[in-house]
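Quick one - inputs below.
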Amino acid sequence: MKVLVLYTGGLPFTEEFSAQAAAEKVKAYLELQLVAKVEIQILHHIAGADVSFSLAADLGQAIMSNYAKFDGFVIMHSIDNAIYTANLLAFQLTNLGKPVIFTGTTLSENFFNFPGHFSSAEQLAYREMSLRTSLVTSVQLATLNCRGVLLAYGPHIVQAVRANEHLTSDQAGFVAWPDGEVATVRFGIELNAHTPTRHQASPEFNPRYSTHITTLLRQPDLTIPPLPENTQAVLMTAYQDQALPSQLEFPANLLTVVTGNTIQTTALPPHLLLLPALPLVTAQAKLMAGLGRTTSTEELKAYLLKNQVGEFGGQML
Amino acid sequence: MNIYLLNKAPTDIASVLHEAEVKVWTDMTHLPDAALSGFSLNALERVDGIILEISYPADELHYILAQAIVLQRPTLCLYPKNREPREMLLHLQKPTVPKSVIARSYTSTNLKDVLGKFLQSIDRTVKLEDTPNIKFTLRLTPALEHYLDWLSQYQGINKADYIRRLIKEDADKNADYQKLL
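Output:
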């Protein structure tokens, strides 16, 4: 089996080094060649905090260019912002018949928060071991009978569009909403029974997206403040079981999307859409991709309501 | 001691390990609940040693070996003397492979010895009796032979077993020799 590793950043080293040096470091992880025939391409060399949404489009283009040549794809991405890049890519690169797996080091800062316990050299060694373990797991997963955009940071492998960030005292990673866990790492990798399998059809790639979304987190009264001029849609998150007020004033010319388990007490205005089953990051990415496809409110609503890549649970499409 | 064993060969390696009274895990069903959740990267973190039979194909062999290399767990890669997996052995000879990962050939007669040495490299208190496969000619006086015959006939003791036991008991009691071990 052939696997393409696309490097975007996230090597746990403190010194500055070039993209070429990064490639050499990854190639030195010879254990990868035990698992599959691995090729490495350097796409970017940036820290997770500096990632922008355009990275998803670059990744999609690289995967499309190499789709026929490889059985699976592994993306080395710092854990910071990986969930954003992976979600946007999942909505840009649809009908995937092969696995595309994001991975990187998983040790959280808290792991090292014991003054004097770890020298800086030990910290780097631990982080590199964490990266290499996740990388080996991801390359193996890329050879198995699964598909879709996945996050493999640590022992839980989850669908990007069903993922939530999960931070424990010693590890950062992702957990899934129900049905979103694709596989579990123990001694080997155990695929779950509901994990979708590969198919031969070609993927579809649409890299267009819009970032002109105003996101409002947990507004106590669900009111909307004055919006930036270029706003194309509003995304609001509600508290658990928050009742939608009977008198709501939403912008008439913009679509407002509300995520979270709200209680509906009145008929919804035509420009309001409830998407209770989506994590915020997934709702953002889906809205960004939807706005890249259409400016019609009705078409956008239809796009958002359709289960595009399994984001509403159940089988990935 | 906990040992993870991956073995698709017809040789029964697990039974030999059980003789050494180590816990042998071959898949997740053998794991206690605490071990299922007590790791952050791979369940191999929870074992003291890994034994892989590398000459017979197994779905997860390469993956487990790659993880053993990364995690630097004590790992014994076994192959029969007449079934050398050349490609795998070439990989294991690369300088990036840690010294914790070793490859050893085995035969039906030396398997116990190979396993015993590996287990003792992890924990010196582990005992795995060797197979007595070294021939040794012993000349006796008629009186000694008479005594051995008597033991054998009236007490049902194998003469060779009796002599081996005498040597072992003497070795166990010899403090100078024990210091060497």
